[in-house]
Amino acid sequence: MTSKRDGSDVLNVQPSETKPKAKPKTKPKAKPKAKPKAKRKTKRTVATRGKANSAIRDAGGTRIGRPRREFEPETALAIAATIAADGLDWATASHLHGVHEQVTGRWMVENEGFALAIKKARAEDVRALLIRLRALPAGQWTKAAWELERKYPERFGQNQTLQLTTTTKLEVSGAVCAQISEAWGKFKRASAVEV
């Protein structure tokens, strides 16, 4: 009798009861090599503007960037004359003469004579407004007074202050004083009715 050699007779196990064969182990596929990461720059390789300016100055050169507009006496006098004649503020007068207000501000800081000329021009504008105010007839003074109040509120404004002495000092304008006194009156009338 011939028999099949399936291996079941050796183990005396029925073919349905045999364990499935394990797959043969194969080598895992190699992962593709990753590209090396680029190094991060931690420090700036380009010199900063401040360091560049100091290095150029140390070497005896001029500073980098747009050149500063130097003080121009003719333009400064024209700005002061415009302030005195037209009553403009110094920023508007400087724009009228083609100078940026920051440049004019720097000129006033650096050149004391120019700053005094601007103050003198503003004083002449106040003087001209006061002369015009005095020359107006009795009922037509409001426009000149309004202009003085708006141009120079620290000197001609109607900012009335009330000082209350408590643990802290408090400055209150005239309109707020009126509101406070009105509210206080209402409070007193209401408390008198309740009693």
Description of the structure:
- The protein has 195 residues and is mostly helical.
- Among the domains are: 73-156, Arc Repressor Mutant, subunit A (Orthogonal Bundle); 162-194.
- It has 9 helices and 2 strands.
- It has a two-stranded antiparallel sheet.
- A hairpin with a 3-residue loop joins strand 1 (162-165) and strand 2 (169-172).
- It is flat.
- The protein starts with 7 loop residues before the first helix and ends with a helix.
In CATH, the topology of the domain at 73-156 is named Arc Repressor Mutant, subunit A
| Mean pLDDT over the full residue set | 77
Helix/strand/pairing category: mainly alpha
Level-2 CATH architecture of the domain at 73-156: Orthogonal Bundle
Distance between the termini: 131 Å
Strand proportion, as a percent range, falls in: under 5%
Question: Strand order across the biggest sheet?
Answer: 1-2
Gross geometry: flat
Number-wise, the strands total: 2
CATH class of the domain at 73-156: Mainly Alpha
Secondary-structure element order, N to C:
HHHHHHHHEEH
Number of helices: 9
Short description:
The chain is mainly alpha-helical and about 200 residues long.
Secondary-structure map:
Elements: H1 8-11, H2 49-58, H3 73-86, H4 90-96, H5 101-110, H6 112-135, H7 142-151, H8 153-156, E1 162-165, E2 169-172, H9 174-194
Antiparallel strand pairs: 1-2
Helix pairs in contact: 3-4, 3-6, 4-5, 5-6, 6-7
